[in-house]
Amino acid sequence: MKIGIVGGGSIGLLFSFYLSSLHKVTLYTRTPSQAERINETGVNLVRGNLSECRKIQAVSFSAWRGTDDIVIIAVKQYQLPGILAVLKKQPLDSMCLLFLQNGMGHLKLLQDIKARAIFVGTVEHGAVRDAPNKVSHNGAGVTKCAVFKGEGKLLSELSSEAPPEFSLKVERDYYSLLVQKLVVNAVINPLTAAFRVTNGTLLENPFYYQILCRVFDETAEVLELERKEEYFSNVISICHNTQKNRSSMLKDIEAGQPTEIEAILGYVLEVAEKKQKAAPLIRNYYTLIKGEEIQGEGLRSG
Q1: pLDDT tens digits, 246-285
Q2: What digits encode the pLDDT tens for the residues 62-92?
Q3: Are 277 and 221 in contact (CB under 8 A)?
Q4: In 21-179, which ranges are E strands?
Q5: pLDDT digits over 23-43, tens only?
Q6: How far, in Å, CA of 269 to CA of 124, rounded?
Q7: Helices 206-223 + 267-274 axis angle, to 10
Q8: Which pLDDT tens digit goes with each residue over 39-59?
Q9: Gyration radius of the chain over CA positions
Q10: What pLDDT score does 10 carry?
Q11: What is the domain partition of the chain in residue ranges?
């Protein structure tokens, strides 16, 4: 299968490395310099004490022409508008697209894409990009995908042909799949970014844990979650299993970069407004992170 992967961040490098063992992979990067480096040295993956390098074809995304069987979009949600503008310049009638963004704010952007099929997914792996051609795989997980619109034959083929150490699981309902990840992101990411702590600290500090519980309750009320206890157990389990990890939102804040707060808490606030539900804690942390983003802009411009 010919697989295109858009985005040279941690997830793009991770998927490129593993999928290239069984498929023809092309990695589309934002900058020509990253593509040149990967073409020269390959993609290096570090896992524990092991390090392995694989040769992968990389080109600048500006050169994308839609010749892949499936394209995996592995960029941040706020980068999607620019990516979609390029995608729409090519005929997509025979193209299958898989979007791997946090939150659910991006769904409205996918509605008018006229592709053969659109899939969405969530990634449970822990990964950090150490260099333009190097990624550390810090926590093994699973990628869960579902059909957003169109037919799912190619997604099933991708799942069945994935490397055993990098499984892709096909779910029946995209909304349930994304809501489960949204709840996790809505609770863990903003709080770790606000308090500048690792995921596990939200459980270890009794006062942070109280706030975690309240933010979860508010999120559950807005989204009208059934089986609330299962969702809460999942949040606690992920906090525990990734206790030493720093969330992607915390890393973005520390780097003075934009975050995915709009796709996560921004989406929850949109739902709250439509349902006329109060969400004061969610609005508080949404506003706090937006303020941090402005501070980051000042650091970058300074």
Answers
A1: 898 999 999 899 999 999 999 999 999 999 999 999 999 9
A2: 888 888 999 999 999 889 999 998 888 887 8
A3: yes
A4: 24-29, 43-47, 50-54, 57-60, 70-73, 96-99, 117-123, 126-131, 134-139, 143-150, 168-170
A5: 999 999 999 999 999 999 999
A6: 24
A7: 50
A8: 999 999 999 899 999 999 999
A9: 19
A10: 93
A11: 2-172, 177-295
**Cβ-defined contacts of 215-218 (< 8 Å, 24+):** 215/186, 215/187, 215/190, 215/191, 215/281, 215/282, 215/285, 216/183, 216/187, 218/279, 218/280, 218/281, 218/282
2-172 adopts what CATH topology?
Answer: Rossmann fold (3.40.50)
Instruction: Report the CATH superfamily, name and number, of domain 177-295.
Output: N-(1-d-carboxylethyl)-l-norvaline Dehydrogenase; domain 2 (1.10.1040.10)
Residue with tokens 């499984």: 167
Give me the active site residues, please: 181
What is the side-by-side order of every strand in the sheet holding 126-131?
A: 50-54, 43-47, 134-139, 126-131
